[in-house]
Design a protein that fits this description.
Blueprint (H helix, E strand, L loop, with lengths): L7 H12 L3 H22 L3 H18 L8 H32 L3 H4 L4 H11 L1 H8 L2 H12 L4 H8 L3 H22 L11
Helix pairs in contact: 1-2, 2-3, 3-4, 6-7, 7-10, 8-10, 9-10
């Protein structure tokens, strides 16, 4: 878990320094956050090598995109990057495994395999109506929804990750669901007339 005695402003200062190309700031950020990221990723993936690769990819992404960070808690931002990298890695491993199995058996099974339920949900969240609706709600509400729904964190874990009280997590989660529902209703197509032409 993330140590609780850290100054979030210090994290933001480190990230600004990383955006300026400061490798020492990146090393400090890594030392500060790698432990809890590794532990949390390890709970979602049993393959230690994949977890290490994802952690490395996360900090490569931080190095490349530190300048794009806007306002959110640095720990939350890091977790979003890491969890997405983990999903990408797991998808890549699954595709590789299917292709290798198809090659061994001589079948084209990998090409016909339907995406998993998780992949369909994630694609819907990223690119479908839900993704568009998520973009319409405020960033602090979106952050709570991503942590609790997409990442599957408990209220306590979300509170610790985002540095806010548990009660605030619950309140924001309720508001986020309400706003998301309203945004989805706005984007829903108007129902057409029933039946066809005679």
């Amino acid at each position: 878990m993330r140590p609780s005695g850290e100054d979030p402003d210090d994290d933001h200062a480190l990230l600004r320094a990383v955006a300026q190309g400061d490798t020492e700031a990146l090393a400090t950020l890594y030392d500060r956050h790698a432990g809890w990221l590794l532990a949390r990723l390890g709970r979602r993936c049993a393959d230690a090598e994949t977890v290490r690769e994802v952690l490395q990819d996360t900090f490569v992404t931080v190095w490349r995109s530190a300048g794009s960070h806007r306002g959110a808690r640095v720990g939350g931002w890091l977790w979003v990057i890491a969890s997405r990298r983990l999903v990408d890695a797991q998808r890549a491993h699954a595709r590789t495994d299917l292709a290798a199995r198809a090659e061994r058996t001589g079948s084209n099974e990998w090409a016909a395999t339907a995406p998993s339920a998780e992949e369909r949900v994630l694609v819907g969240l990223e690119y479908g109506d839900v993704g568009a609706a998520l973009d319409r709600i405020s960033p602090e509400l979106r952050e709570v929804l991503r942590a609790t729904v997409i990442d599957g964190l408990t209220t306590r874990e979300t509170a610790r990750l985002l540095g806010i009280p548990e009660g605030t997590v619950k309140t924001r989660a309720m508001r986020a669901r309400r706003e998301l529902r309203a945004a989805l209703e706005l984007s829903a197509p108007e129902p057409g007339p029933l039946g066809g032409t005679a």
